[in-house]
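Example record

One chain of 306 residues, shown exactly as stored in the release files.
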Amino acid sequence: MPQKKITLLLYGADRQLWAGSGARLRVTDPNRRNDVRVLVSQPLKGAVIEMNLDVAFDAGQIYVVSVEAKGYRPAWQIVWHDTFLRDEAGRKIEVPHAMMRLMLIPRKPSSQDLPLGHRRLTDEHGGLASVWTLTEADYRALPAAHQMALLNIEAKLRETFIGTNALLSYVTGLRGIDQDRLFILVSSELKDLLGRSPLFADAAGHPVPKNFPGFPAHPDSWKHTLFNSGNVQLSFSDTTEPWPAVGSGAEACFSVDVDVDLARGFSHGIEWLSNNLIKPGQKTDQTKIYGLLFSQGIQPLYTLDP
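Predicted structure tokens for this chain:
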């Protein structure tokens, strides 16, 4: 089988190359049930790591590259066949080398500039700040997890495109913030665009949210497929509603439940990943989403303390 090479860049939570000690690299093969194999396990001596992999990708296999260090949450990415595919002039070309970025985040992270998120949105981007009714005081009163969810999902919508337009450009209103998702209003045309896009796949929708019983169910859902982890999912209401609900100039908008998932479905591989790195049954930890967005080159409008 052809050998693949990966260059791994390891960063700290401050977006600078990792300068700590005690980090350990693991490459795991979770493809065979009850026979999870560790292919690589070695201490790291720097922040730039070169790896040669002699593994097969002929039957949908995945491999998990992770870095662990005491006091930090594991940083990980999934390696699969698409990791080594590049789009050149509309054709998929297989290449022998890939580069990835991982971020080690403290198990008890903090952020001194998270309270400034509302101001940054207002000053640096129109986006959600131009359509919400959330004041800076209301934003600062939110729990940190809710603030992170808002800023993480705003960044993901800003950097995810349908055609030449960012998803954020279709947002007409912000109606609710939970610790792992937003409830927004979008222009009615977006639903049809996602349904016809090859970059979005059908996904399971969501019932009426428990924390917002006055909101509708969101049964019609599509998930972005560009990445193997950290994809945005948009779940739509059945019918439109006028927005703004009062005043003039209302338009027909869909209610949308939007979140960012930790991983795509890879059958047993994701079962292993969930049990070992994600912790199933819990609300999506927004600091993990922050690390995944960073690996995709997306930077939310706040930083974590090193």
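Notes: The first strand starts at residue 4 and ends at 12.
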